[in-house]
Amino acid sequence: MSSKEKLSEELLLEEEVLKQNEIVLYNDDVNTFDHVIDTLIHACDHTSEQAEQCSLIVHYKGKCTVKTGEYDDLKPRCSKLLEAGLSAEIV
User: Fold this and answer.
1) How far is residue 53's CA from residue 23's CA, in Å, rounded to a whole number?
2) What is the mean pLDDT of each run of 10 residues along the chain (91 residues)?
3) In this structure, are strands 87-90 and 21-26 parallel, antiparallel, or unpaired?
């Protein structure tokens, strides 16, 4: 194996290890901006500015990644979003 192939293989392995999951929040016609903002602050530890920006992105683009990280950290956060009536999933 050449050194170039070995380096390429190591980079691919490193990218795979660093891959993190994301919580994607989807737009709906039910929840108010205030409810979405409050829920993002509570469930995802957003600042009020982060939560407001995410709510606007969701409103205008249809979806937004609201949190990235390890699956075990994201699962309870996504559950809180779902329990609050928001549409979200871990991808």
Assistant:
1) 15
2) 64 66 97 98 98 98 97 98 98 97
3) antiparallel
Taking residue 81's Cβ as centre, other Cβ atoms within 10 Å add up to 22
- Burial grade of 49 (CB within 10 A; 0-12, 13-18, 19 or more): exposed
Residue 12 lies in a domain: no
Whether 52 is in a domain gets the answer: yes
Q: What is the pTM of this model?
A: 0.80
Output the six-digit token pair for 56. 């606007």
Total domain count for the chain?
1
In angstroms, the first-to-last Cα distance of the chain is: 35
Question: Order of strands, edge to edge, in the sheet holding 87-90?
Answer: 63-69, 21-26, 87-90
